[in-house]
């Protein structure tokens, strides 16, 4: 079992892994913390983008010789193959790491897997540590990998009268949200990178035409271009249908501020909230209430 110190380090690794959101695709966002033999943090790192050093390598570089005999705490099983970078399991072996603590196993692992190769090298390996907490960051990548399409979220504004606004979400909220996504799709079909120039252009390239839809075919095409997470900004009938059918997993609705008592003519305005949905969180922000829903179709699947 993982120790309390290792669990604390894992939560730190999960936290820093999120700095890779919106930039690592098609690779996953991963974080790593190195503990020395006495349990002190001596190095940490995260994966910035595909083609650059992985989290373990960055953390080992920070730790230097202090990693010898220590513990590597990593959010995803160390990779076991040579690609644009050498295998991370070998970097851990070469650094003299004595123990590796892993949150999630890598479904793309080659051959017997990185964890197995670490054990063969005589390193103690602990798996499945804080799995659900690690999924908070790496979950969308895993969902996308399993379905072969990007993990999609949808957000839009509902006016105080209950109508569906075509306007985008509040600017501050949009800026905070978009950095977590590979790409942002506007309601009129324009597509752009979540953060400009964040990805490796050799493996991530968006179509330049306007009119991208939310069909499985279009989403699969985006997946082939390196997109693993997509934010749909603004209400449209197509997005509503995609949510109801489970092609969109989550929806965040921003309700505009209104008077304590407000009336409207019943039966003349369509529901402003998504159908076939379960409310999972809500919060008050300036001028709006933010409500997040999960598609019941996605839950059922």
Walk me through this protein's architecture:
The protein has helices spanning 4-17, 55-63, 88-94, 114-120, 131-147, 171-178, 216-224, 237-244, 296-300, and strands at residues 31-35, 41-46, 71-76, 99-104, 124-126, 151-158, 183-186, 191-193, 229-233, 250-256, 277-285, 288-295. By secondary structure, it is α/β, with parallel strands linked by helices. A seven-stranded mixed sheet has the order 8-7-9-6-10-12-11.
Brief summary:
The protein is 28% helix and 23% strand. By secondary structure, the chain is α/β, with parallel strands linked by helices.
Notable characteristics:
single chain, 301 residues, alpha/beta, seven-stranded mixed sheet, five-stranded mixed sheet, 9 helices, 12 strands, elongated
Topology (elements, then pairings):
Blueprint: H1 4-17, E1 31-35, E2 41-46, H2 55-63, E3 71-76, H3 88-94, E4 99-104, H4 114-120, E5 124-126, H5 131-147, E6 151-158, H6 171-178, E7 183-186, E8 191-193, H7 216-224, E9 229-233, H8 237-244, E10 250-256, E11 277-285, E12 288-295, H9 296-300
Parallel strand pairs: 3-4, 4-5, 6-9, 6-10, 7-9
Antiparallel strand pairs: 1-2, 1-3, 7-8, 10-12, 11-12
């Amino acid at each position: 079992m993982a120790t309390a110190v290792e669990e604390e380090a894992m939560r730190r690794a999960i936290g820093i892994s999120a700095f890779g959101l919106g930039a690592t695709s098609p690779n996953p966002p991963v974080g790593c913390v190195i503990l020395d033999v006495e349990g002190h943090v001596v190095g940490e790192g995260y994966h910035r983008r595909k083609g650059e050093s992985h989290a373990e390598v960055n953390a080992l570089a920070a730790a230097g010789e202090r990693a010898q005999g220590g513990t590597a705490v990593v959010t995803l099983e160390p990779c076991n193959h040579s690609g644009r970078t050498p295998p991370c399991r070998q970097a851990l072996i070469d650094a003299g790491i004595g123990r590796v603590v892993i949150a999630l196993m890598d479904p793309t692992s080659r051959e017997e897997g990185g964890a197995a190769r670490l054990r063969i090298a005589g390193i103690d390996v602990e798996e499945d540590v804080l799995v659900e907490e690690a999924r908070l960051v790496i979950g969308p990548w895993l969902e996308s990998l399993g379905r072969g399409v990007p993990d999609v979220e949808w957000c839009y504004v509902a006016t105080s009268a209950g109508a569906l606004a075509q306007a985008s979400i509040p600017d501050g909220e949009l800026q905070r949200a978009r950095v977590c996504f590979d790409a942002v799709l506007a309601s009129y079909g324009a597509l752009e990178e979540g953060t400009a120039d964040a990805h490796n252009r050799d493996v991530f390239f968006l179509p330049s035409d306007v009119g991208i839809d939310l069909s499985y075919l279009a989403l699969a095409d985006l997946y082939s271009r390196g997109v693993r997470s997509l934010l749909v900004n603004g209400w449209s009938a197509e997005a509503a249908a995609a949510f109801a059918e489970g092609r969109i997993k989550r929806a965040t609705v921003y309700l505009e501020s209104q008077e304590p008592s407000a009336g409207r003519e019943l039966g003349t305005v369509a529901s402003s909230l998504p159908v076939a949905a379960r409310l999972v969180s809500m919060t008050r922000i300036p001028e709006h209430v933010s409500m997040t829903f999960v598609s019941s179709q996605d839950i059922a699947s």
